Amino acid sequence: MSDNSISITVELHGGPLDGQTTPVTLTDEDPWVALPNDGCTFPGGSSIYAPDTNGRWVWQDDQPAQTP
Description:
Layout: E1 6-13, E2 21-26, E3 33-36, E4 46-51, E5 57-63
Parallel strand pairs: 1-5
Antiparallel strand pairs: 1-2, 3-4, 4-5
C-alpha cells in the first residue's frame, strides 16, 4: 500500500498564530488543521486554519478543548 499524502510547511495568516509556520499533511480534499494554542479564545483550546482559494492558510475560528 502506498502513501499518497503530501507533507508541506505552511505560514499561518490571521488569528492568534499569525506569521507562525506549521507542518501539515495534505490527505483530504478539504484540508484544515486545529492547533493547540494558549492564545485562542478558549482556555486549552485550538485555533483552526485552512487554505483559502489562493492557497494561503488563514485563521477560521477557535474551538474549545476536546474532553474525553
